[in-house]
Amino acid sequence: MKVIHFSVECYPIAKVGGLADVVGALPKYQRKLGIDASLIMPWYNKPFVQNHEFDLVATGAIYQGSELLNYEILKEKDDVLGFPVYLVKIPGKLDRDEVYMYPDEAEQWIAFQHASLHYLKTNGIMPDVMHCHDHHVGLIPFLTKHTEEFRSFNVVKTIATVHNGQYHGTVNWNKGILLPQFDTWKWGLLDWDGFINPLATAIKCCDSYTTVSEGYLKELFNEANGLDQLFYAERSKGYGIVNGIDTDIWNPATDTLISPNYTIKGVKKGKTDSKKAFAKKYGLDPSKPLMAYIGRFAGEKGADILPSIIKKLFSNANNNLIIFILGSGEAETKEGLENLLPDYVGKFACFFGYNESLAHEVYAAADLLIMPSRVEPCGLNQLYALKYGTLPIVRNTGGLKDTVIDVENNGYGFVFDEVNADEAVVAIERALGLVEDKPSLDKTRKMAMELDFSWDQSAAKYVELYNRILN
């Protein structure tokens, strides 16, 4: 079976969020199952591209409206990610330093999708499945079914995976002229509330859509930023498949970004030593439990309540802990955290920005991870944390609800219901109570680390879905 993934992110080539982690792992694990899986993504002027060799495998040209765009297809020479990666480079469109935040983003993604399909058709490449990740490539299921240029792909099955249903890629209809010529009788498949909506188009036109957890699939029926009705109407072709983690990268026994490495058997000493080194670097007391937050400062992550959580925790003299936050995003949250730093010297520290290596160090050193998310389609941080013996404290939503069982239900984490500091602090204080109970902590850590959230299981579920739609 030949499967081609389409995405605008892939770790370690270009990462902004969890989409990159998924796309950087899923094709590799599918190949282990005998699937001929590969990836097509845009070219970016990033370190990975600069530090690896690429073969020019094809060139071509497309018209985007009246503009002629020349493209190159570059294949990473050695398949270092464990699967073939093809980059689409278009001067002036797909040759930039960053993934997002450009004013002509719609034109970029239309060009990427058009050039990708043109390359496949021109070179006689006919996959069994085209797997499209998020709205950036949401037009592909439409283009393969309702354009004369790509009608030969009508027999190819399409899967659309929704990593975050809050973002649709909506553009004005004046961009419609940039698309390959399509059957105008089918314009309604592109439209949602008077705009071209790539995510809505993907859901309408794909053979099946998936979300990154079962819980998130159900949530989209009620809260999808205006597409609730559509997700519900198309629910018969919807499936929830929890993301996995790449255990070649996220494994405390082999992780090259942490020291010391440790296994389940040596987790107690491994985390103690990791915390000592980490705490020394940031001026914190290693004798106290360490709680961390890793991620974007965004409303959907609940990061805006972090300053209130910190103040409430330290206002109670009985709470014996240190806190570290690694993240970036909304200025108001960052400012709120910065203002607290002078008040809690030796108890609280931050690193503002994105730092992959530091994230690994934090998972190894921390006892607890807080995730107060309003929206969390799957969540990978809690899965990384569990693998490193770091117990998650999560809000009861989306994929967090699917993957974290509260200790009160014989589980390995701590769950609260509402996004507010009071409920979060109650859950954190319950977690601190367990951390102080060393026998219970040891038992729960080992339970957490023994869980299997690897891509082996999730990749197999995708293959099962491919077979279902092909048959």
List keywords for this structure.
471 residues, alpha-1,4-glucan glucosyltransferase (ADP-glucose donor) activity, alpha/beta, 9-stranded mixed β-sheet, 6-stranded parallel β-sheet, 17 helices, glycogen biosynthesis, Rossmann fold, 2 domains, 20% strand
Describe, in plain words, how this protein is organized in 3D.
- The protein is an alpha/beta fold.
- The chain has 2 domains: 2-244 and 456-470, Glycogen Phosphorylase B (Rossmann fold, 3-Layer(aba) Sandwich); 267-452, Glycogen Phosphorylase B (Rossmann fold).
- It has 17 helices and 17 strands.
- The strands form 3 sheets. It has a 9-stranded mixed β-sheet with strand order 3-4-5-2-1-6-7-10-11, sandwiched between helices.
- Helix 5 links the parallel strand 6 and strand 7 (157-162).
- Helix 2 (26-32) packs across helix 17 (455-470) and helix 9 crosses helix 12 (356-365).
- The two termini are 12 Å apart.
- The model has no long low-confidence stretch (mean pLDDT 96).
SSE order and pairing:
Blueprint: E1 2-6, H1 18-23, H2 26-32, E2 36-42, H3 47-51, E3 54-64, E4 67-76, E5 85-89, H4 105-122, E6 129-133, H5 140-146, E7 157-162, E8 191-192, E9 195-196, H6 198-205, E10 208-211, H7 214-220, H8 228-233, E11 238-240, H9 267-282, E12 290-297, H10 306-315, E13 322-329, H11 331-340, E14 348-352, H12 356-365, E15 368-371, H13 381-387, E16 391-395, H14 398-403, E17 414-416, H15 421-436, H16 438-450, H17 455-470
Parallel strand pairs: 1-2, 1-6, 2-5, 6-7, 7-10, 10-11, 12-13, 12-15, 13-14, 15-16, 16-17
Antiparallel strand pairs: 3-4, 4-5, 8-9
Helix pairs in contact: 2-17, 9-12, 10-11, 10-15
Function: Synthesizes alpha-1,4-glucan chains using ADP-glucose.
Domain Starch synthase catalytic: 2-230
Domain Glycosyl transferase family: 275-432
